[in-house]
Amino acid sequence: MLTQDSSVGVREVQRAIGMSSPSVASHHLTKLESLELIEKNPDNSYQLKNLVKVGVLQNFIRFRGLVLPRYSFAAMFFSVYTLAYFVLTYGNPLGLFDRYIGLGIGIVGAIFAWYETYR
Hints:
Blueprint: H1 10-17, H2 22-34, E1 38-40, E2 46-48, E3 60-63, E4 66-69, H3 72-89, H4 96-118
Antiparallel strand pairs: 1-2, 3-4
Helix pairs in contact: 1-2, 3-4
């Protein structure tokens, strides 16, 4: 339900999670409905009502239907920054020390952000 903006049925949940039968999925969906986290539609499908970030989900964000690690945006920023800095300053007569500082900041930031994304 987190990755889809539309409602899902019991069988879809059962297949996606790999539960043994639709009745087990229905039981768990009923529990989530009693906690007011999801709501049951008239066509017997379920839709996310309230998103509660607990435990592992605190380290993820939802972006356009995708569930991404929280640090993925910082990792992409530092990676693109480092690559762009290297390409744009490759032929310019910057001092060697200046180039090392700029690339060092980018590389250290990218390594840290990708490590946190992976972790």
